[in-house]
Design a protein that fits this description.
Layout: H1 4-76, H2 89-96, H3 99-102, E1 107-108, H4 125-136, E2 144-145, E3 151-160, E4 165-166, H5 175-186, H6 203-218, H7 228-231, H8 241-244, H9 272-278, E5 282-283, E6 290-291, H10 297-305, H11 313-333, H12 343-352, H13 359-367, E7 373-374, E8 381-390, E9 393-404, E10 407-417
Helix pairs in contact: 5-6, 5-10, 10-11
Length: 418
């Protein structure tokens, strides 16, 4: 039989084991809690820093945007005079709007350039003057380039929406003109693959159907547009529901103006490849005429093709010749506005390339009250894309800004952040 002393010793040993286990458990619990608190604190710190950087990047992008709109506002105040500027000032202003370039103009001293000696009241005045003179005589060696540290902004692009084809005007009195301009834009053989696999095996007919679908999307009636100026077919082409059924449009067209260029993608027969190819040549924001001097090569060829008689594949090569002659003219005049294309020089380029001008179409597209082709830049809307960067965080602003002559503030018609 165990003595009472032995039983007491065993009880004490058992109590010590339980106490040790409790202490270890408590230490483990405290360690896990402290680790969790530390992780939460670090996570919150990172989130706060990331939020701060995103906000700073947004402000940097807005800074570039503010500078660009400031420039455009004052450019609009020039009115017709800006047509005589010998350089593409809008594009040049965007290319110079870069904080890295600004770094070359602003310099500041680093801590290494600042004397660590602190003047005390007991120092003599001549010693202080000597230090000041030494500071003035410092060279730029050892000085850090740039006033922007770990942050930057720049203007990515500025596009004049006035130099694009406005699809919303398919619902206006310029419908036939815009349809002809679109047909010219789509006509090139290099775009044939974009119209394959549609409702028609005839690629010419496929182009007409897509123009008709764009028109039906924005016009107010419920009938299929026949694109009469091209097809010669008068009257209605049937109920629009037959066209839009089977698409993600609830079987109906919008029958209202588009709210953004991206909405074009919702129109039946428009696929991703087509949209990526033409989205930068189409707009919903422009007004007035398209300045043929400022459009890109594809739009220029398309507008010219709407003015001439296209009889076969050889005529497409002649269109390229017109474009080449335009480039030669531009290089020869070094972009001088006084020597840019006008009605006479454009006609000369077309006839010299061996193309025949359709005088009826010329009058309709260039001279009529509903004309869409012009030769001078008009005050319009600009798509501006700016980028702000803070560390590894970026913010991109994609906006459309329109100025109204004497209205120096202008309006933002579209705003997207990413």
């Amino acid at each position: 039989m165990l003595s009472s002393a032995s039983i007491q010793n065993n009880h004490v040993k058992g109590s010590r084991g339980v106490a040790l286990l409790m202490v270890l458990s408590l230490i483990t619990l405290l360690t896990v809690s402290i680790f969790e608190f530390s992780m939460n604190a670090n996570t919150n710190l990172r989130l706060a820093a990331n939020t701060r950087d995103r906000l700073q990047a947004k402000f940097m992008a807005q800074s570039a945007l503010n500078i660009e709109t400031f420039f455009l506002r004052h450019l609009n105040q020039l009115g017709p005079m800006k047509n005589f500027l010998p350089i593409p000032v809008t594009e040049i202003a965007c290319s110079f709007l870069d904080s890295e370039l600004l770094n070359q103009f602003f310099r500041y001293k680093t801590d290494d350039n600042i004397s660590a000696d602190v003047s005390s009241d007991s120092k003599k005045e001549d010693a202080e003057n000597k230090n000041e003179d030494e500071g003035k005589n410092q060279t730029t060696e050892g000085m850090s380039l740039g006033i922007f540290q770990n942050v930057s902004f720049r203007c990515i692009t500025v596009e004049n929406e006035q130099n694009k084809i406005n699809v919303n005007r398919l619902a206006s009195g310029q419908r036939d003109n815009i349809q002809l301009a679109l047909m010219g834009l789509f006509t090139g053989e290099q775009y044939d693959f974009l119209f394959e696999g549609g409702n028609s095996s005839d690629l010419h007919e496929a182009r007409i159907q897509l123009i008709s679908a764009l028109t039906d999307w924005v016009d107010s009636d419920e009938e299929i547009n026949t694109v009469a100026k091209i097809t010669g077919q008068k009257g209605s082409g049937g109920d629009e529901s037959s066209r839009f059924s089977g698409y993600d449009t609830n079987g109906k067209s919008k029958n209202a103006l588009m709210d953004s260029v991206e909405e074009i993608r919702r129109v039946p027969l428009v696929n991703d490849a087509w949209f990526q190819e033409f989205m930068h040549r189409l707009t919903i924001y422009s007004s007035g005429k398209i300045n043929i001097n400022e459009v890109d090569d594809s739009t220029f060829a398309g507008l010219v093709s709407s003015l001439v008689e296209i009889g076969g594949p050889s005529d497409y090569q002649k269109l390229k010749d017109v474009l080449e002659q335009k480039h030669i003219l531009g290089e020869a005049t070094e972009g001088l506005s006084l020597l840019k294309l006008n009605e006479a020089t454009l006609k000369t380029l077309i006839t010299n390339a061996g193309l025949k001008i359709d005088e009826q179409m010329w009058n309709f597209m260039v001279k009529s009250n509903q004309a869409v082709i012009g030769f001078e830049e008009e005050v319009g809307a600009f798509r501006i894309i700016t980028l702000g960067t803070v560390g590894n965080v970026t913010n991109t602003l994609n906006v459309v800004w329109r100025g109204y002559g004497e209205n120096v503030s202008g309006d933002f018609l579209y705003w997207k952040e990413s």
